[in-house]
Amino acid sequence: MRRGILLAALLLIGGCRPKFGGAATGAASSDGAVQQFLFAARAQDLQAMSAVWGDEQGATRDRADRTEMERRLIIMACHLRHDESQVGAAQASEAGRTVHRVALTQGAKKASPNFTTVRNSKSGRWYVADFEMAALSGWCTGTQRPPTGAPR
Question: Where does the chain show beta strands of DSSP type E?
Fold first, then answer.
């Protein structure tokens, strides 16, 4: 009986965890997409990052090769490790895109990369299409701590 309850609880919890692919992607607003992306990067949660990384067609994870996508997400998550973030106001850009300047702090380091978001015309959901990784040079080093739960 106990095993059955434990198994049911594990299945329920496992079913609630976001997975690669699926319908619940994007964010309700441009700044919300940037905030969710940064929160996920800070937590080193690649699945959550993949839910708001995309373009006008929707989430990249619904179209991309999984291995390649995970590699790119790992690199982005490493560069986006931060202690504090402040998402700036939306600025209109070309082709219906929106840009946010984001103030990031990692220890004594500070940077203000631009994040570009796009809206999917079918769903109305917003995705982070790009950010200025060059503004974060030196933030991704071998001295970073591994993500929570990662083998050491």
Answer: 54-55, 58-59, 84-92, 98-106, 109-111, 114-119, 126-131
In this structure, the number of other CB atoms found within 10 A of the CB of residue 48 comes to 18
Residue 22 phi/psi, 5° resolution? 115, 170
Q: What Rg do the C-alpha atoms of the chain give, in angstroms?
A: 17
Torsion of CA 90, 92, 96, 100, to 10 degrees: -40
Separation CA 82–CA 90 (nearest Å): 21
Q: In degrees rounded to 5, what are phi and psi of residue 132?
A: -80, 90
Query: What pTM did the predictor assign?
Result: 0.77
Return the amino acid letter for 133: M
The position carrying tokens 């103030």 is: 103
CA atoms within 13 A on the CB side of 37: 33
- Per-residue pLDDT 10s for the chain (152 aa) are 444 444 343 333 444 444 444 457 999 999 999 999 999 999 999 999 999 999 999 999 999 999 999 999 999 999 999 999 999 999 999 988 999 999 999 999 999 999 999 999 899 999 999 999 999 988 987 544 444 444 43
